[in-house]
Design goal:
The chain is of the alpha+beta class. It has a single domain, classed as 2-Layer Sandwich (Beta-Lactamase). Helices cover 36% and strands 22% of the residues. The strands form 3 sheets. A 6-stranded antiparallel sheet has the order 7-6-5-10-9-8, sandwiched between helices.
Length: 235
C-alpha cells in the first residue's frame, strides 16, 4: 500500500488537481494486479515492431515499420523467467489501467544507461507501433515530452495539442491523429526518475480528471516494479 502522504506529495509536485481518495482507491486496485495470478503472457514479451525513424531521428514514420523488431532481451541478459515475469506484470498493469482510461495509446518506459548515455526504453504498451527509445538529452527534450519528463521529473497534461503548439509549446508531431496527451514520471522515494508513462488520444480534452486519476495511480504503483527489474544494462 502506498502511503497517503506519498500520494498527496505526488499530486502536489505534479500539479494534478485530483481527488486523493479516488487516487488511493485506484492505486490499491492497480497494486493488486501485481499480486494475483495472471493469464499466460503474450507470445513474445521481449520483442515488438517499431516504425522507421525520420532522417533526423526525431520522429517515427507512421505506417512504415522497420524490418526488424526491437529486442528487449539484451537489457535483461537474456529471456530469463524472472525477466519474463517482470514484463508480464508491466503488460498486465497497462491492460488494467487502460480498461479504465480507454486511451488510444498507453506505454511504460524505463530509464536505462548512464548519465551520458541515458535513454527511455519502452517496456510495455498498447496501441500503434512507436519508437522504442527516447534520448535523455537537453536537445531532444526541447521537442519531446517524453524526454523532457524523463529529464525533469515534471509531468505534462496537454488537453489540446493544436492549442498547445499555437501557444508556443514544443511538440514533435509524429502522428497527426494525436490530439491530447498525458506524460507522467515514475519516481522512487528519493525523487529519482525511474521511468515515465505516456498516454495519447485522438480526441482533444480526452484526459478528464477521472481518467487522470488512473494514470497517476499507474505512475505511483510502477515505482516498485520498475525499481526491481532484473536489468543488466542500467548504469
Amino acid at each position: 500500500m502506498i502511503p497517503a502522504s506519498r500520494l498527496a506529495a505526488y499530486l502536489k509536485e505534479q500539479s494534478l488537481p485530483l481527488d486523493k481518495v479516488e487516487l488511493q482507491i485506484a492505486a490499491l486496485t492497480l497494486g493488486a494486479v501485481l499480486s494475483v495470478d495472471k493469464p499466460a503472457p503474450r507470445t513474445d514479451l521481449f520483442r515488438y515492431p517499431v516504425p522507421l525513424l525520420s532522417d533526423d531521428g526525431a520522429c517515427s514514420l507512421v505506417d512504415e515499420l522497420a524490418a526488424e523488431p526491437y529486442d528487449l532481451s539484451p537489457l535483461f541478459g537474456g529471456e530469463s523467467a524472472e525477466a519474463r515475469g517482470a514484463l508480464n506484470d508491466l503488460h498486465a498493469l497497462v491492460d488494467s489501467t487502460n480498461s479504465r482510461v480507454g486511451a488510444d495509446w498507453l506505454g511504460i518506459y524505463r530509464v536505462i544507461g548512464s548519465k551520458e548515455q541515458a535513454r527511455l526504453v519502452k517496456l510495455a504498451y498498447r496501441g500503434a507501433p512507436s519508437r522504442a527509445e527516447f534520448p535523455l538529452t537537453e536537445s531532444f527534450a526541447a521537442g519531446s515530452n517524453n524526454s523532457r519528463v524523463g529529464l525533469t521529473g515534471w509531468g505534462v497534461v496537454i488537453d489540446d495539442i493544436t492549442a498547445w503548439r499555437d501557444m508556443g509549446g514544443s511538440y514533435y508531431e509524429c502522428d497527426p491523429k494525436v490530439k491530447s496527451e498525458v506524460c507522467l514520471p515514475v519516481l522512487n522515494e528519493e525523487g529519482v526518475v525511474l521511468g515515465i508513462i505516456d498516454a495519447e488520444s485522438s480526441e482533444a480534452g480526452f484526459f478528464t480528471p477521472e481518467r487522470q486519476v488512473w494514470l497517476a495511480a499507474l505512475a505511483l504503483v510502477l515505482a516498485s516494479p520498475l525499481a526491481g527489474l532484473p536489468l543488466v544494462e542500467e548504469n
